[in-house]
Amino acid sequence: MTQKPPVILITGGAQGIGKGIASYFLKKNWQVVVCDQDAEANRACREDFGRPDNLLLIDMDVSREAEVASAVAEATQWGGRLDALVNNAGLADPDTGPIETLELAQWQRRIDVNLTGAFLMAKHAVPHLRGTQGSIVNIASTRALQSEPNSEAYAATKGGLIALTHALAVSLGPDVRANSISPGWIDVRAWQAHTPSEPEPLSAADHEQHPSGRVGTPGDVAAMVAYLVSPEARFVTGQNFVMDGGMTRKMIYEE
C-alpha cells in the first residue's frame, strides 16, 4: 500500500510569508492546504503556482470556530492525514495609533485573528496531528521582543503566540511538537496579493544594516519551517526561533 504524502495546512497562506511557505512545500511535493480569508488572493494562488494538483485552497476566517472546524475537516478528508500546521494568519499592520485612542474593537480584532486564531486551529488540528506525530509552527514576530511606538495590540498578540507555543509543547508532547518563528524584516512585497508590478529594489543600506548582510525573504522562513516539521527536529519543541538577520543582537544608539 502506497503511503499518502504528508499534508501541511498554512493559514494566511495566500500572500506574504505564508505564500512563500506554501510555494516551498509545493515544490517538495507535500500536499498543501492554504487557508486565507482573502478569497481573491486564494484564487490568484492557484494560477501563480501553476494550478498544481497538490494544492487545496480554502476561504476562511481563523477567528470563527465553525469555519476553522470545517476547514480542518475538509483538509484532512482531502489529504487523508495532517502532518503540520503553520499558524501564519494575522493582521500585519503593527501601528494602531496612540493607546489613548486605540478602540477596544480594533484591539480585540487583532487578538481574535493573530492569537485566538492560532488557538482555534490547534484545537481542531491536534487530534489529527497526534495520529501522525505531527508538528505546529506558529509565526510570531521580533515585535514580541522589541517595539516601536503605537504597536501595543500587535506586540501583545505576537508575545502571546510565543507563550502559547511553549504551553502547547508541554501539553501535547511527545505526540505533537510546537515551535514558533519570530521573523524580523522579511521582504514580502513580491508575495503580496493585488501587487500589479515588480517592487522597487531595496537599498544597499537596507541590506547592510543587517549583520547577515541582507533583508530576509519568505524562503528563509519556509526553510526553517521545513526543518521544524521534519524528523530531524524531533528533539526540538517549545522553542522560539528569531530570524532577523541578527538585528535584535545589535546595540543601536543615536550618535
Topology:
Elements: E1 7-11, H1 16-27, E2 31-36, H2 39-48, E3 55-59, H3 65-79, E4 84-87, H4 104-132, E5 135-139, H5 152-172, E6 177-183, H6 204-208, H7 218-228, E7 240-243
Parallel strand pairs: 1-2, 1-4, 2-3, 4-5, 5-6, 6-7
Helix pairs in contact: 1-7, 3-4, 4-5
Describe this structure in words.
α1 crosses α7 and α3 (65-79) runs parallel beside α4. The chain has helices at 16-27, 39-48, 65-79, 104-132, 152-172, 204-208, 218-228; strands at residues 7-11, 31-36, 55-59, 84-87, 135-139, 177-183, 240-243. A seven-stranded parallel beta sheet has the order 3-2-1-4-5-6-7, with helices on both faces. The model has no long low-confidence stretch (mean pLDDT 95). β2, α2 and β3 form a beta-alpha-beta unit. The protein has one domain: Rossmann fold, CATH 3.40.50.720. The protein contains seven helices and seven strands, in the order βαβαβαβαβαβααβ. The protein is of the alpha/beta class.
Overall pLDDT level:
95
The rough form would be described as: globular
Number of strands: 7
Percent of residues in helices comes to 40-55%
What's the arrangement of strands in the largest beta sheet? Answer: 3-2-1-4-5-6-7
Integer-rounded radius of gyration: 18 Å
- CATH architecture type: 3-Layer(aba) Sandwich
Could you describe the largest sheet, including whether it forms a barrel? 7 strands, parallel
